[in-house]
Amino acid sequence: MYDINELNQRFGAAGRIxxxxxxxxxxxxxxxxxxxxxxxxxxxxQVLSYRPMGHTPVxxxxxxxxxxxxxxxxxxxxxxxxxxxxxxxxxxxxxxxARLVSWDLLSxxxxxxxxxxxxxxxxxxxTKTLWPHxxxxxxxxxxxxNLSIExxxxxxxxxxxxxxxxxxxxxxxxxxxxxxxxxxxxxxxTDLFTKKSNxxxxxxxxxxxxxxxxxxxxxxxxxxxTGLGRNxxxxxxxxxxxxxxNPWIEKSSExxxxxxxxxxxxxxxxxxTLPEEKMVLQPNEKITxxxxxxxxxx
Length: 298
Fold this sequence. Notes:
The protein is mostly beta strands. It is 6% helix and 43% strand.
């Protein structure tokens, strides 16, 4: 259990960093400065909202999202860890467990241009039932003229382990059929529905269920949203692939935690390390991934 008064006393700062309990009982951390604001759920260690000054909210969150412990929050910026996609064995959660457990505060800090918080989880009895390895996972959330998330994994055990992961932003758009994604031009991608590979010709437009994986060596992409009059730029490091997902009509109707028509207002752009990359972390080895999101008016 979280003691909100204690969190505010130890880690809060008037007008910059505050903690509260949401209506569903989940603890929320608010980061604020002259550049904007963001909210982070300590359950799941997940950014829920990001609003730069002078903009409407950048992140999508489903009105049908689950609101209880043990289930994922549909939207914001979840962390898929220590596996991305299908679990390594049956009975385990898709996209790992980092977004399904409670995180603790490590530190907060701020100055005239930056508000920042670091949160963490380590292996315990709960995680050992899902994944047998010893680890420390630290997530640093920084609010400046952009929102950046930096995730560092430490192998604390005596054996190496495989790791796949993704920082997975859900971007809010006015109308999915009137946006385009740049930065993927001339990149090879795999359509996970057809299992076919193709070469992207020009910016990507979305007009059907989309689940593409780009081997995007550029480490950057952007959504141009004429309806909201803005560009959302995404930069990332430590991950070789970019996953683009929109469930469209049929899949949306199948998802319990997504409204039937909500696909029109969202697009996920998720930098990722995929399971097939067979990334191995040796004992006492660290690896860091990072994603930044920045909004500009057009």
